[in-house]
Write a structure and sequence with these properties.
44% of the residues lie in helices and 10% in strands. It has 285 residues and is of the alpha/beta class.
Length: 285
């Protein structure tokens, strides 16, 4: 395996399924962080748990935090159920052409809850590893089924950010991703260190995901020891690419020298499927 593909919410949006956190907040008012990135809710949840721990681990407060978390998961499940009916496929999008061009040579990871193959009709489909669980489109849209779908969505905090004795409380332990029903241990961190080419499509990358999955890769690149030689970053436009690079620099100052160590090629979907750089990438797949 020489190439891995990582899908973010921008891929779904380009495909025609707008399931951004901003869109979610319009449908279901989020009680903590409004119209922000997906990672913002998890950061808010993490701070609530840390404050709970510092203030003496009150049992009633632990129940309140757990209720907030469960409410968000149920609302997410309802959101995806509603959005499934609003899906508007455009076969002229870069996302569709990209999906159509894939082969079994690549390992695909996704930060999205949706599986794109449930929404498009293609002759060939390939396995996708969902890092945060997934929503299954082909279930009955009844209240109990929607609620059970919420169990498949991995939303919460990471064990690394909590003192070990905090997880002795069952209400708090339930929030930890590794203890959730939909959690599946993956090889993404290892794979990132053992491939020559990485394709990121629509990945905004919040700080939590950077620290968990990507920090090792970028640190290894900065130290000159990475196998990775090429990164294709597919995003909407130059502004969104600049925002991505700004985040990387903020997360670690060493990332400012990335271009000297690895070839990073931005591809802008707003330029359409005939964009020369995108066309070359499709021929590579």
């Amino acid at each position: 395996m020489k190439t891995i593909i990582i899908l973010g919410s921008g891929f779904d949006k380009d495909l025609g399924l707008n399931n951004s956190f901003e869109e979610f907040s319009k449908c279901h008012l989020n009680p903590t962080c409004g119209n922000a990135e997906w990672g913002a809710f998890e950061n808010t949840l993490r701070h609530k748990v840390l404050d709970w721990y510092k203030d003496g681990m009150d049992e009633d407060l632990a129940k309140e935090i757990n209720t907030l978390w469960r409410m968000c998961k149920n609302r997410l499940s309802n959101f995806f159920t509603t959005k499934s009916d609003e899906f508007c496929l455009n076969t002229d999008t870069c996302a569709f052409k990209f999906l159509e061009s894939l082969s079994s040579h690549y390992k695909i990871y996704s930060f999205n809850y949706t599986n794109p193959y449930e929404y498009v009709e293609l002759k060939n489909t390939y396995p996708i590893t969902h890092l945060h669980g997934r929503y299954h489109k082909d279930t009955f849209k009844k209240d109990m089924m929607v609620m059970s779908q919420g169990c498949n969505l991995v939303v919460g905090i990471d064990a690394d950010c909590l003192p070990s004795d905090a997880m002795s409380n069952p209400y708090i332990q339930a929030l930890v991703k590794t203890h959730q029903q939909g959690y599946v241990k993956t090889d993404l961190k290892t794979d990132l260190l053992h491939v020559e080419t990485i394709i990121m499509y629509g990945l905004s990358m919040c700080e939590v995901d950077y620290n968990i999955y990507f920090k090792g890769l970028f640190n290894t690149i900065a130290e000159g020891g990475a196998m990775c030689k090429k990164i294709f970053y597919i995003t909407a436009c130059a502004d969104s690419y600049a925002a991505f690079r700004e985040k990387l620099n903020k997360f670690d100052k060493k990332n400012k020298t990335l271009d000297e160590l690895v070839k990073i090629t931005p591809i802008y979907t707003t330029l359409g499927t005939q964009n020369e750089t995108f066309y070359k990438l499709l021929n590579m797949l």
